[in-house]
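Inverse folding, one chain.
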């Protein structure tokens, strides 16, 4: 058996949650900013995650996926909500799962990192630091977000 196939990186991994990865090679979450500007995947993004899956990854994680457009970190973030293009999201999911890979989403709320030109910088607490400011979500806003 050659070194690549016998490497611990090439062995399956069962996570405590029960998910089983085909190997131990993962692309961690990063904000790739490849969405279409209104929260949907683009063909370029779909092709990229398919290419990574075909390249042998066991897991890819898409970072900064938002549940609301109100607090997006940047224009290219994916947004999963009422106005999402679910056909494109399904294409992305299938592409990222090519050859037995898994594609997971890292749900985010940008808070003070929200891009002010396209969203409202708000977080659990108000911040006023050099280069990093945001208002605090009200109790009512927090309750509303929790129920969405």
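Residues assigned per position:
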């Amino acid at each position: 058996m050659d070194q690549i196939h016998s490497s611990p990186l090439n062995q399956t991994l069962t996570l405590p949650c029960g998910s089983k990865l085909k190997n131990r090679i993962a692309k961690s979450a990063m904000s790739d900013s490849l969405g279409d500007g209104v929260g949907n995947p683009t063909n370029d993004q779909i092709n990229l995650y398919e290419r990574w899956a075909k390249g042998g990854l066991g897991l890819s994680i898409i970072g900064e996926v938002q549940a609301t457009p109100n607090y997006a970190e940047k224009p290219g973030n994916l947004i999963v909500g009422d106005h999402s293009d679910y056909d494109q999201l399904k294409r992305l999911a299938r592409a990222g799962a090519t050859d037995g890979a898994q594609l997971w989403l890292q749900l985010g709320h940008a808070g003070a990192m929200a891009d002010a030109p396209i969203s409202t910088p708000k977080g659990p607490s108000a911040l006023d630091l050099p280069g990093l400011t945001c208002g605090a979500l009200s109790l009512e806003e927090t309750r509303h977000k929790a129920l969405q």
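DSSP finds four helices and eight strands in the chain. The two ends are 52 Å apart (CA to CA).
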